[in-house]
Amino acid sequence: MLKSAETVAAWENEILPEDYFRPLDLSAVYGRRAPLEVDLGCGDGSFLVASADLNPAHDFLGIERLAGRVRRACRNIGRSRITNARVLRVESFYAVQHLLPPASVEVFHLLFPDPWPKRRHWRRRVVTNDFLAAIHRALVPQGSVRIATDQMDYFQEIERLVAQSARFAMSSDTEVRSAHSTFEKRFRQSDLAIYRLLLRKVSPSRNEVASQ
Predict the structure, then answer these.
(1) In sequence order, what are the beta bridge partners of 86?
(2) Do the domain assignments include residue 1?
(3) 96/94 Cα distance (integer angstroms)
(4) Stretch 151-170: mean pLDDT, rounded?
(5) Which residue, 7, 67, 9, 65, is CA-closest to 40?
(6) Is 150 among the residues known to form the active site?
(7) Which strand (E) or helix (H) includes residue 170?
(8) Has residue 11 been placed in a domain?
(9) What is the pTM of this model?
(10) Which domain holds residue 27?
(11) Is 3 exposed, middle or buried (0-12, 13-18, 19+ CB in 10 A)?
């Protein structure tokens, strides 16, 4: 069972912070210092495990709020015998805002977040101005966010929010990847459209730095 000065595991490969009000000591969690990639809403860990297996020089953190999915993700990590992936059970926004140290993440992956398709539920969508600000803070200089969704209206809303901010440079994500989430595999089999976006962190201005 994984243990460190920073964390005590509930499930093997699950991080259970001793203090949910201070950032994680990532070097204690992984036993090394390496570029970190974070899978927000990692589900059963399909993308997380495949990515970690393909990139052993990077560390991978899956964030998921549902206990059953966390359990499956941890089991999938264990079966794969990889050592560079962990899972944290908490809301994505809370994790980004409070548990990830500033300038600690190389890449965020936000793959098929809950679209909350009914207009009255749009306020529950994870991508907001506050979420983008928290993501920007956690990214290393020139760090990136890779977003994928099957919902055109959500994609357009994300584009609009990013365009109003000076925090990111925005472009289409055209990278061909070998790792896929369970949702992406399903959408590919059904030949459904997938909308992708790549955000690159833009360094804050001197005025922004001074106000922090």
Answers:
(1) 61
(2) no
(3) 6
(4) 93
(5) 65
(6) no
(7) strand 168-171
(8) no
(9) 0.86
(10) 20-211
(11) exposed
